[in-house]
Design a protein that fits this description.
This protein is mostly helical. It has one domain (4-83). 64% of the residues lie in helices and 0% in strands. The protein contains five helices and no strands. It has helices spanning 4-20, 25-30, 36-47, 52-62, 76-83. It is globular. InterPro entries: DUF6455. It holds the Pfam family DUF6455. Residues 1-83 form the DUF6455 domain.
């Protein structure tokens, strides 16, 4: 089971990646397009990522403009669905 620190780190990564690809998770929750449970599941999927350092580097290098999550992202389908 992931530690609290790991969960926090990956929650931040999920939120940053969503923002980078143009998805406002809070807005999507308010509109009923995604549930908090789905976001929680996304965070847990992220904790099993094979390259969180690469994801972090991509987000830092790309600033706030990333077209899509990296190919290894376990949440790429969810991000694509929410992006529309």
């Amino acid at each position: 089971m992931p530690s609290n620190a790991q969960i926090k780190r990956h929650a931040i990564l999920v939120d940053r990646m969503a923002e980078a690809v143009g998805v406002d998770l809070q807005e999507k929750v308010l509109r009923g397009e995604v549930t908090m449970e789905e976001i929680e599941t996304a965070v847990y999927r992220c904790t099993a990522c094979t390259d969180p350092e690469g994801c972090t580097a991509l987000l830092e290098a790309g600033g706030k403009a990333v077209e899509t999550p990296p190919s290894y992202c376990r949440n790429s389908r969810m991000m694509a669905r929410l992006k529309g």
